[in-house]
Each structure stands twice: as structure tokens, then as C-alpha cells.
């Protein structure tokens, strides 16, 4: 009997190897690593492949339904924006939008990311400042609070925020909290249940405490708060004391970046949050359909974005989104004449161009990526296109640097063409294997002309700027997990003034950093270099 089981397992293992060898469509390096694991650890390799390869999960049925519904809400706006930008590019009044039009169009059509306006953008680089302002904003909430975090600790700041959420829920504010079940695994579920008892709602994303589902490796890495539909925070900070350097167990100095937004960009963040909220599956017995989300949106998206005051406080809530096809007439239940369609379209395009005229508002795109997407690498593609557009400089801050082949190559080519490429990574780390792999990639890239700087502590910021014109802030690390396996979200800002502020922050951080070269990495003890090479080999799986 044991022999039959052994040979059966070997046969199945061979089938897995054949599948990876002939039917996988991923990079050759990633395929090679999986074949190596399957051959060395037959049973364990198969289990790891099922859980971590990314081939056994493309999103739940509910996820696809919600995603399709959310995209339908903005379909007409995207169509009108594309027509306005591509049919008459010479009429675009904003030179930055003109210059990066290919990137904007790619995000618009492939990533389904609207080009919206950010009326105000405030940057935070200290966790203490961020949490103080976040708590003040939560206290001032009148209608709704939507929060989504990878990590939500039961520590001082976690308890403080939870107390506010429970109190606001008892006051009648609509409070919704999504926490990742793996990222917040150290936090007892009863801590979150107190919000449910107070009248709010807290839900785990891809619950794993009931077992080990196929979704174990697909985590919600987003960090977002939307308040009253008119202001939002997005960036790298989770809910925990370590983010304001008050966790005694975590010694390195923590440095992160968050941005507070107002304007119509908040509406797109709210759409993304509610898409995640209504995607959470049926073990939440109180889960209702996406129809319930209609109350959070304007009655007509094209009319909302055609108004000069789109995004002003309070303008993005209330109403029924069933009439989302007001240009085409479908969905409204009424026939719309060709003349009315044309007039509506012209009105929208005129208002849209006026919004890009270079006033105080910042043209913005909110880009998401995740394993449920048709194309999982939307954010990586955005980064690559940003790098390809560079003419002078590229500045990147990231806590981990284990890029895939495509990202590595485009950075290398940028350095070859004389573009100044500077990348800031930590000198102190939270994961020893990521440190080893990142240092090995950094060593190789230093030889290609890329400059690397070690921050004196743990820099957790995920920020990129290009040529002093566009910038990205969000949740995405420069590693394969963020690019392919995690649910991520980044804001892309097309504005010189905002990007100048990001570059100023980068320059201030550089004053604290130490530049490292290939020679510095080569001086490390030989066993450290060998360990780095080993971790780099498995970096596609880290």
C-alpha cells in the first residue's frame, strides 16, 4: 500500500513538472525554481506550488461580478476621457498630461483608471503626524468611515483608533473596516468584533483562521481610509505602534510616506474600497449585494465628472448609480436622442479639458492591481512606463528590492542612457531573507550604473518620481509579490509642484543616507554573499 502511495505521488509530481515545463507562461527563472522545488521536495513542492504559484486562483466568482459592476459604473466616463485625450491631443492645455499621454491612456484603457482631480494633497513622512491627523479626521466624520489595512494591531494606536470607530458607529456613522486576515493574524478576532457590536462592520479579507485555503498567498496589502466620501489617506502606513517608532520590540527607526487627498480622486478610492468590501465572500452572513453600494455614488458619473465642482466636499455621496450610461442612454430606461448624446459629450469634454488647465487641482490616476485582475501587473506596467518616459532622473524609495526581469531591464537601460537612477532602500530590515536578496540585486544594479542609498533605519516608503513631473505614492513594493500576488493600490500624480515636494523629501532623506557601490557589497564576508545569491535565486517566490 505504501509503495502504491509513493509511486502515485511520484506520478503526480511528474505531471506537475510537465505542466510547469510546457504550459507555464511565466518567466523562465520562476519556472526553473518551481521545477527545482518539485524535484527536490516532491510532496512539499506540490503543496507549495498549489498554494503559492498563482495558477490556482484567479479571483472568486463574487470578485469578478463586483469588479465588472464597478467598471460598468465608470465605463462611459472612461470612453469620453479617452476620446477627448486621443482625438485632439493638441487641445490638451496641460504640458505634463501631453508628455505622459501614453501612460495615462494605458492606465485608462487597460487599468480602467480614470483621470481625476486631486484638489489638495498633503504628504506625511512621520507616523506620529499621520496618526494624529487621521484620528482628528475620524473624530470629525459625519456620514461614513471606510478603512482597509493589511495590518491592524491591538496596540496603543490600534486601540485608540478602534475606540473612535466604535464611538462613531454608535453615533450613527456608517463605519466599515477591512483587515487582512494574515497580516493581522496576531490581532484577536474579538478585538474586531467590538466594532460589529457597536453597529459598525469589520470583515477579514480572505479568512485563513478557518484553515489554509488556496487564497493563503493572495493578501490585501492596501492601506486606505476614506471619510465622508470627500477626503482620503493612502500610503505605506498600517495601524501599529511601530509606524510611529513606539514599538519597543521593533528597534529600527521607521520611515514611511502617506498622502491625504481631497477632490474627485477620493471617489475612485471609494469605488475601489467598496469593490473589495462587496467581494468578501459568503461566510460574512450579513454581506449584501453591490446594489447596496449605489447610495454612496452620484446618480450619473459622467455628469458628476463634467461639473466644474466635481470632487468638492459632499458632492460624491448620495443618489442612485443605476443611470450610469447617461451618454449612451442604456441603463436609464429612456431613449436619448443623438443630438442629446452629442451635446452631453461636448459638455463633458469641454469641462474635462478645463479641469486639466493647470490650476491648483492635480491630475491623478488611482491604479490597482491584484491576482483577480485580468492583467495582474497593472501597477508594475505603470512603473515601467514611467521609467521608459524618463529623460533626466528617476528616484525610488522601496523597503524591498527584488524586481522581476522586466523591471530590472528597464532600470538598467535607463541608467545606460545617462538617466540618473537613484534607489533608496533600508540599512535595517524586518525580514532577513529580503535583505539578503535585495542587497544582491542592488550589487548587480550598481554595476549597471544605478545609484543605491542605504537609509539609517527601515524605510517603508513606496514612492517614485520621474523628471520632476510625475510621482507615485501607494502600497506597492518593488518585488514580485507586490507585482503579481498582492492586492495593491497606488496614486499617480501628474503635477510638477507636487512632484517637487516629493523630490524635496527624497533629497532630505538622502542627507541621512550612505551611498553604497558594488565594491561595498563585494567586501562582505563570503558566506553573506553566498546567502544573498541563494535568496536572490528564490526571490520570485519571496
Explain how this protein is built.
The chain has 542 residues and is an alpha/beta fold. It starts with a helix and ends in a 5-residue tail after the last helix. The relative contact order is 0.13. Helix 4 packs antiparallel against helix 11 (265-277) and helix 16 packs across helix 20. The protein has helices spanning 2-22, 28-40, 42-52, 61-73, 75-87, 95-99, 101-109, 127-139, 156-170, 189-197, 265-277, 301-306, 338-355, 378-389, 405-416, 432-446, 480-485, 496-512, 518-522, 526-537, and strands spanning 116-118, 120-124, 144-149, 174-180, 201-205, 224-227, 231-235, 254-255, 258-262, 362-369, 393-397, 401-402, 420-426, 451-455, 458-459, 463-466, 470-474, 478-479, 488-494, 514-516. It is built from 20 helices and 20 strands.
Overall mean confidence score, pLDDT: 83
In total, the number of strands is 20
What profile does the largest beta sheet have? 9 strands, mixed
Shape: globular
Strand proportion, as a percent range, falls in 15-25%
Give the strand order of the largest sheet, numbering strands 1, 2, ... along the chain: 1-10-19-17-16-11-13-14-20
Q: Which class do the helix and strand fractions yield? A: alpha/beta
Poorly predicted spans: 311-334
Count of helical stretches: 20
- If you compute it from the alpha carbons, what radius of gyration comes out, rounded to the nearest whole angstrom? 24 Å
Please bin the fraction of helical residues: 40-55%
> Termini separation (Å)?
37 Å
Features:
alpha/beta, 20 helices, 542 residues
Amino acid at each position: 500500500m505504501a509503495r502504491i502511495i509513493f509511486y502515485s505521488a511520484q506520478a503526480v509530481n511528474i505531471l506537475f513538472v510537465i505542466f510547469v515545463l510546457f504550459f507555464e507562461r511565466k518567466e523562465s527563472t520562476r519556472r526553473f525554481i518551481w521545477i527545482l522545488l518539485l524535484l527536490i521536495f516532491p510532496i512539499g513542492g506540490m503543496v507549495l506550488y498549489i498554494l503559492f504559484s498563482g495558477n490556482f486562483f484567479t479571483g472568486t466568482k463574487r470578485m469578478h461580478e463586483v469588479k465588472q459592476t464597478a467598471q460598468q459604473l465608470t465605463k462611459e466616463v472612461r470612453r469620453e476621457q479617452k476620446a477627448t485625450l486621443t482625438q485632439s491631443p493638441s487641445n490638451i492645455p496641460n504640458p505634463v498630461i501631453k508628455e505622459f499621454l501614453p501612460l495615462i491612456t494605458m492606465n485608462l484603457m487597460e487599468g480602467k483608471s480614470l483621470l481625476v482631480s486631486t484638489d489638495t494633497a498633503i504628504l506625511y513622512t512621520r507616523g506620529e503626524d499621520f496618526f494624529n491627523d487621521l484620528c482628528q479626521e475620524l473624530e470629525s466624520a459625519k456620514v461614513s468611515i471606510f478603512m482597509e489595512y493589511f495590518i491592524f494591531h491591538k496596540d496603543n494606536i490600534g486601540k485608540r483608533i478602534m475606540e473612535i470607530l466604535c464611538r462613531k458607529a454608535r453615533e450613527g456613522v456608517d463605519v466599515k473596516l477591512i483587515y487582512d486576515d494574515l497580516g493581522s493574524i496576531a490581532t484577536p478576532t474579538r478585538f474586531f468584533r467590538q466594532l460589529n457590536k457597536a453597529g459598525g462592520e469589520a470583515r477579514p479579507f480572505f479568512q485563513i483562521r478557518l484553515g489554509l485555503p488556496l487564497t493563503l498567498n493572495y493578501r490585501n496589502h492596501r492601506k486606505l481610509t476614506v471619510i465622508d466620501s470627500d477626503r482620503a489617506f493612502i500610503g505605506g502606513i498600517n495601524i501599529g505602534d511601530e509606524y510611529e517608532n513606539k514599538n519597543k520590540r521593533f528597534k529600527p527607526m521607521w520611515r514611511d510616506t502617506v498622502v491625504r487627498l481631497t477632490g474627485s480622486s477620493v471617489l475612485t478610492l471609494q469605488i475601489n474600497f467598496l469593490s473589495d468590501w462587496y467581494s468578501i465572500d459568503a461566510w460574512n452572513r450579513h454581506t449584501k449585494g453591490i446594489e447596496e453600494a449605489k447610495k454612496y455614488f452620484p446618480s450619473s458619473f459622467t455628469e458628476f465628472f463634467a461639473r466644474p465642482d466635481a470632487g468638492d466636499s459632499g458632492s460624491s455621496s448620495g443618489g442612485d448609480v443605476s443611470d450610469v450610461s447617461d451618454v449612451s442612454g442604456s441603463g436609464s430606461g429612456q431613449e436619448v436622442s443623438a443630438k442629446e448624446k452629442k451635446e452631453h459629450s461636448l459638455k463633458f469634454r469641454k469641462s474635462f479639458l478645463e479641469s486639466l488647465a493647470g490650476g491648483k487641482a492635480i491630475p491623478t490616476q488611482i491604479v490597482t492591481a491584484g491576482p483577480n485582475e485580468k492583467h495582474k501587473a497593472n501597477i508594475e506596467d505603470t512603473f515601467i512606463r514611467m521609467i521608459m518616459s524618463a529623460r533626466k532622473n528617476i528616484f525610488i524609495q522601496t523597503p524591498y528590492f527584488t524586481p522581476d526581469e522586466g523591471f530590472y531591464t528597464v532600470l538598467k537601460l535607463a541608467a545606460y542612457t545617462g538617466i540618473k537612477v537613484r534607489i533608496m532602500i533600508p540599512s535595517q530590515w524586518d525580514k532577513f531573507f529580503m535583505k539578503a536578496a535585495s542587497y544582491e540585486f542592488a550589487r548587480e544594479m550598481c554595476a549597471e550604473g544605478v545609484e543605491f542609498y542605504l537609509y539609517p533605519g527601515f524605510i517603508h516608503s513606496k514612492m517614485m518620481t520621474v523628471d520632476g513631473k510625475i510621482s507615485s505614492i501607494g502600497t506597492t513594493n518593488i518585488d514580485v509579490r507586490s507585482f503579481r500576488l498582492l492586492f495593491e493600490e497606488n496614486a499617480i500624480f501628474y503635477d510638477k509642484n507636487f512632484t517637487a515636494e516629493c523630490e524635496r523629501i527624497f533629497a532630505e532623506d538622502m542627507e541621512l543616507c550612505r551611498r553604497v557601490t558594488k565594491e561595498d557589497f563585494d567586501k562582505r564576508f563570503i558566506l553573506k554573499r553566498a546567502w544573498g545569491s541563494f535568496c536572490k535565486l528564490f526571490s520570485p517566490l519571496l
